[in-house]
Amino acid sequence: MGMQEESSDRVDARVGEGVALALQGGGAHGAYAWGVLDRLLEQGLRIDRISGVSSGALIGVMLAQGMARGGADGARAEMRRLWQRVGEVHRFSPFRASPLERWLWGWDIGSSLAWHGWETALRLFTPALLNPFGHNPLRSLIADLLDPAALADPRAPRLTIAATDVETGRAELFGNREITVETLLASTCLPFVFPAVRIGGRAYWDGGYAGNPPLAPLIDAPLPRELVLIRAQPARRAGVPTTPTEIINRLNEIACHNVLEAELAALPASIRVRSFAADAALTELPIVSRFTAEHAFLGELFAAGRAAAAGG
What we know:
Blueprint: E1 4-7, E2 19-23, H1 30-42, E3 49-52, H2 55-90, H3 99-105, H4 113-124, H5 127-130, H6 138-145, H7 148-151, E4 158-165, E5 171-175, H8 181-187, E6 197-199, E7 202-206, E8 226-230, H9 244-265, E9 272-276, H10 279-282, H11 295-310
Parallel strand pairs: 2-3, 2-8, 3-4, 8-9
Antiparallel strand pairs: 1-9, 4-5, 4-7, 6-7
């Protein structure tokens, strides 16, 4: 189970109100966050504001528009719909494991011939050459699921998603009424797979590079009483990565973790922090498993997340 950490021993005269939710990105590992949230909503958690990047941005969108439509039950149904669709899209992925590969290597697609071929291609060609038309399987999925009217509904929590401006390195923030298919594609854009997403003449990559997730949008006035942080990346991994993809992914995890820890340390002392760590659920999984979105794998992560929330 994920460890639940709390910080409530600091002293600050400003007593906040409401609950803020911070959702990390982590590819398919975001299904762990889905499980945590599903259980927390079942327990009666009420959320006032949300910040998310990458897969956390997608979860945040479904959570917000689901709450506008049907409260906690609506949010749980919308998140389930998201991950069901993700699993359906993965059925056509070249990285989907065959029964033999699944038996040999479990969820480690890094041992498959398809993955080795992809790693070789990444070393030889740019994303623009590998994907000249910018095809992204998430585009049609997001277009089908996104409901701008629900996000703009007064009953929806305040939602902020982030993408990283390629030139400045800073997080570009998008609120409820600014969230579109393009901004979500920007927040989930992995630069070694997809060309940068252009919005308003600016180029953007995955929001996790500038903050995973940014906490500043959650702490403007009035301050929240509590911050619930759901991680989708392990803070620690045993062993040393050896392949180029594993090395890049681990560097990204370390960089994102350090940015987040700096923001947590700077939070106003009055905010109580509840953090659901993902180490127990994700540390033993290979880094490349974040690209595995088979229904069975997502179901395992969902169950692990629910167990972590139930034990917290």
